[in-house]
Amino acid sequence: MIDLRKVDAIIEKWNADPDFVIEMMQDVQDEFRFIPKEALERISDRTEKPRGKLFHIATFYRAFSLEPRGEKEIQVCMGTACYVKGAPDILAALERELGISSGETTPDGKFTLTEVRCLGCCGIAPVITIGNKVIADVKPSQVSNLISSYCKS
Ligand code: FES
Predict the structure, then answer these.
(1) pTM metric for this prediction
(2) 90 CB under 6 A from ligand 1?
(3) Count of domains in the chain?
């Protein structure tokens, strides 16, 4: 159960204006690291924006998640340049190291592992991101060290 007072404060920050539901959802996402169903319902009730519309927004934009996310997101680029330079092996190494599959979050809530299409820096492929850090020329053998260094940070 989430603290709906936090959701109410966010809605009030935007004056419960239905034109700002995306901003409200962004704030909810930042607060809880996902958009809980109760928060979506509260925004809908207070802005009179239909729930279906909010649900559509939440599923349409990659920035939003309806499932709890880890403190840090690890993105593995599976675009062509990264793919041919071994991205699938990096993904497999990360899945082994974290004990989760792509798309899942570790039980301790630290990491969410996702696959993305071209991150726009093919010249340094294969690339992964951890939080907002881009890591270039990644090798599967580095994965374990990378994870432990980010566990401490
Ligand atoms: S394909 Fe990975 S950065 Fe472009």
Answers:
(1) 0.77
(2) no
(3) 2
